[in-house]
């Protein structure tokens, strides 16, 4: 592991402040595997899962790994319900939020109700809006005023629930994959993914569209960025001015992922043990975390949890541009072996796995909602 003094961090006045300096290779800025279709990676996982199901005599074991979460967080889980499992120790480490449900009232009335709820929870603009059901950053937007809140509500599907969450005071972001065996006091961090917000830097001469197209990485992913900024593509940023291309920290939305496993520490693991022991029934999943700077984060300090994800989580460091294909497969297969092993222990402890019919219904509900969520920032 690097010593803390050896780590060069992005300055506090820049986007991605507190993160290790991001190196962009002109020739190798995007992993050759980064945007392969899911079936390519998950076919071996499915085959292994069939063997695991035969071995344990139950194919449903992953659905009981986190017994307090609907379907263990495999699909259709509520962000609100998971975060509400936190007790008095864990709650202060989770970014404050409220939930609202889109109904048949006029949009301005619903926005007024939301503002009242925000005030009661000491929340203010800018604020992050996100669907209660959903994954991969779908429907996540940064709202800066009441008008944008009204538009978000107008675009949201009826009878669906959304969260309004405090915009974290930190810029640096990581996905931390945590696993704890049932009955054991200590867990293990098996993955840290550093998530970089994609940016371009102005030179006072080129338009935003030209800057995106000229960037070694953004130019290869322009189909993700150009549609989000149609009103600014002809704008010429000043020399040295940074422009953020995406907000949601999701790989599929254009965020840059780097392998951060070298920054796993005993201090951070112990801190997560303390927090997650106070989240009822949480044994397996990825935490989406914002932190002040890497030095303090490695000591288990100055961070806030945005979301707790469950059984369908990925150890996302595998999407680092330098991760060999064999390591991607190895990590995915390891994850799902852990799912079955923990699920088997939970079943022995009396937790009954739900049916595949329940799983299918939840998947259909989430898929139906996802198709109607607002666009993602």
Main sheet strand line-up: 9-6-5-10-11
Helix proportion: 25-40%
CATH topology of the largest domain: D-amino Acid Aminotransferase, Chain A, domain 1
CATH architecture of the largest domain: 2-Layer Sandwich
* Element string (H = helix, E = strand): HHEHEEHEEEEHHEEHEHEHH
Q: Mean pLDDT score, rounded?
A: 93
Q: How much of the polypeptide forms β-strand, as a percent range?
A: 15-25%
Counting H and I runs of at least 4 residues, what is the number of helices? 10
The rounded Rg comes to 21 Å
What structural class should be given to the helix and strand makeup?
alpha+beta
Main beta sheet strand tally, sense and closure: 5 strands, antiparallel
Q: Can you tell me the residue ranges where pLDDT is under 50 for at least 5 consecutive residues?
A: none
In short:
By secondary structure, the protein is α+β, with helices and mostly antiparallel strands. The protein is 30% helix and 16% strand.
What topology does this entry show?
Layout (H helix, E strand, L loop, with lengths): L37 H19 L22 H5 L13 E5 L5 H14 L6 E5 L9 E3 L2 H10 L5 E6 L5 E8 L8 E9 L2 E3 L6 H7 L7 H4 L16 E3 L11 E4 L6 H11 L7 E8 L2 H5 L4 E6 L16 H24 L7 H15 L7
Antiparallel strand pairs: 1-4, 2-3, 2-4, 5-6, 5-10, 6-9, 7-8, 10-11
């Amino acid at each position: 592991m690097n010593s803390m003094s050896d780590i060069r961090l992005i300055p506090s006045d820049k986007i991605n402040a507190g993160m290790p300096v991001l190196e962009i290779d002109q020739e190798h800025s995007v992993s050759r595997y980064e945007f392969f279709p899911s079936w390519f990676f998950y076919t071996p996982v499915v085959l292994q899962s069939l063997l695991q199901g035969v071995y344990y005599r139950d194919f449903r074991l992953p659905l009981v790994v986190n017994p307090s979460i609907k379907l263990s967080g495999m699909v259709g889980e509520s962000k609100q319900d998971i975060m509400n499992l936190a007790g008095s120790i864990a709650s202060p480490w989770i970014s404050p939020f409220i939930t609202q449900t889109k109904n048949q009232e006029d949009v301005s009335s619903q926005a007024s109700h939301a503002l009242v709820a925000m005030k009661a929870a000491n929340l203010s603009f800018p604020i992050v809006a996100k669907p209660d059901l959903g994954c991969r950053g779908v429907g996540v937007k940064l709202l800066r005023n009441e008008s944008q809140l009204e538009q978000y509500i107008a675009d949201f599907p009826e009878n669906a629930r959304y969260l309004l969450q405090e915009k974290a005071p930190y810029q640096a972001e990581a996905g931390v994959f945590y696993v704890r065996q049932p009955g054991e006091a200590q867990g293990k961090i098996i993955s840290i993914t550093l998530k970089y917000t994609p940016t371009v830097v102005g030179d006072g001469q080129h338009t935003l569209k030209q800057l995106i197209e000229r960037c070694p990485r953004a130019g290869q992913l322009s189909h993700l960025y150009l549609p989000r900024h149609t009103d600014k593509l002809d704008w010429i940023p000043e020399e040295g001015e940074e422009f953020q291309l995406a907000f949601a920290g999701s790989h599929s939305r254009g965020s840059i992922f780097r392998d951060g496993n070298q920054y796993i520490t005993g201090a951070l693991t112990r801190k997560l043990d303390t927090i997650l022991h106070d989240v009822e029934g949480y044994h397996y999943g990825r935490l989406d975390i914002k932190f002040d700077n890497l030095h303090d984060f490695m000591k288990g300090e100055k961070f806030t949890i945005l979301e707790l994800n469950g059984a369908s989580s990925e150890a996302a460091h595998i999407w680092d541009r330098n991760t060999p294909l064999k390591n991607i497969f190895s990590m995915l297969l390891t994850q799902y072996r852990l799912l079955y092993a923990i699920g088997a222990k939970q079943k022995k402890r009396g937790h009954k796995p739900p049916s595949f019919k329940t799983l299918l219904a939840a998947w259909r509900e989430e898929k139906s909602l996802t198709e109607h969520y607002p666009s993602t920032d």
